[in-house]
Amino acid sequence: MRTIRVETSGATILLTEAPEPKVRDRQTGEIAKDANSGEALMTIGVVYIEDGESSLIKVTVPEGGISEGLTLGAPVSLPGLVARPWESVFNGQQRHGIAYRAAAVTPAAFPATTGAVA
């Protein structure tokens, strides 16, 4: 599966949903684990703002990559952020999307402003 590195240096990323376990199987409640390390995976919600446009996205992060001191609405950094396009067929219907994954989520600072917003 193709993985696309996401350059975040020009973006503002704000935490909108606190980390919660990523559920692999909703019927059994099984928590998703990293295929290589076996570490539990978590999901967070963020708003990604760049060039005057914003997107709400969910990002998967290993449990050990969740930093202390995260605050809803505050800026965060997502080192190693990648996007992975996916598609599947469920009940005869084709579905597709983009899955996002980062190595960690850490508190960040708001970028310096150069002037007022008009």
Task: Please give a structural write-up.
This protein has 118 residues and is an all-beta fold. The protein is 0% helix and 50% strand. It has no helices and 10 strands. The protein has strands at 4-5, 12-21, 23-25, 30-31, 41-50, 53-62, 76-77, 82-90, 93-101, 106-107. The strands form 3 sheets. The chain has a 6-stranded mixed beta sheet with strand order 1-8-9-6-5-2, with no helix packed on it. A two-stranded antiparallel ribbon has the order 3-4. The chain has a two-stranded antiparallel ribbon with strand order 7-10.
Task: Give a concise summary.
With 118 residues, the chain is an all-beta fold. The protein has one domain (4-107): OB fold (Dihydrolipoamide Acetyltransferase, E2P), CATH 2.40.50.
Task: Name some characteristics of this structure.
single chain; 118 residues; mainly beta; OB fold (Dihydrolipoamide Acetyltransferase, E2P); six-stranded mixed beta sheet; two-stranded antiparallel sheet; globular
